[in-house]
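In this supplementary section we document a worked example of the pipeline. Step one takes a protein sequence of length 309 as its only input; no multiple sequence alignment statistics are reported here. Step two produces a three-dimensional model, which step three serialises into structure tokens for compact storage. The input and output of this example are shown verbatim.
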Amino acid sequence: MLGAAIQSGYLSQAPYNATLSKHFNSVTAEYEHKWDPVQRTPGVYDFTGADQIVEFAEARGMRVRGHALVWHGATPAWVNSLSEPELRIAMEDHIRTVAGRYRGRIFAWDVVNEAVADEGQANTGGLRNSVFLQRLGPGFIAEAFRLARSAAPEARLYYNDYSIEWANAKFERTYALVKGLVDDGVPIDGVGFQMHVEAQNYPPAAQIARNMQRIADLGLVVNISEMDVRIRLAPGDLMTRLEAQKRVYREIVGVCVAQPFCDGITFWGFTDRYSWIDGFFGPDDPLPFNESYGAKPAAYGVLDALLRR
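The serialised model returned by step three reads:
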């Protein structure tokens, strides 16, 4: 399964629509299923953009991945002022309402996103010091998964995070978290490896494969959930950097293709015209298609991986 994160506001643009429809068979809402866009005001839901994405996919026989039910980012400001019992009620309502609305229509959800602390970050028991951890304690993660299973029993449920493709302490904390959930009978089906990487500094394929295998050994599936490859700081001229990017896409996508427990690849966008990277890291060209929707060397690297060549 090959997917892309998309935004509803771009779907009316013919080149965007056509490229997406031609090359991908699954989509993820980049923003529109997150808490802030759907419930900016307490108790007032707006599914306009979220519905447009689901309806677009359904009309074309594409599958939809849901992202993300509980995340410290894109959470409306009013959530931060809630007491423990108020936050628990709000989280329950949010998960039941959003996941329940798309029951049978969204085949997988990132239930909890980025709850593990980064390297060197202050944390509690290895977890990010978010409002959810502060008010509800570490049990909020298991609680969120149980609520999601109740609201969408047919959907695959994932924990999703970045920088866990490396052999590092963050992966070990993530592994411990996920193993604990499995051991406690929490309904988790898999782990998403986001894979936001740099062309000049990316984990070796064998290392990614080892981390994925360890998750699979817990009886779970994995996926590449948000891939993009930055090239701004890579050495050489533009063509050299684009070829380096092609190599990274081919190698990392190839890891998933080679493993039966890897159930899909999603790029975080597909055209350089629209990427979160530019605003966060600086101008770049991180995706398989350029700003004019032409296939870059990276797109052919992905194709090489899919065809195992």
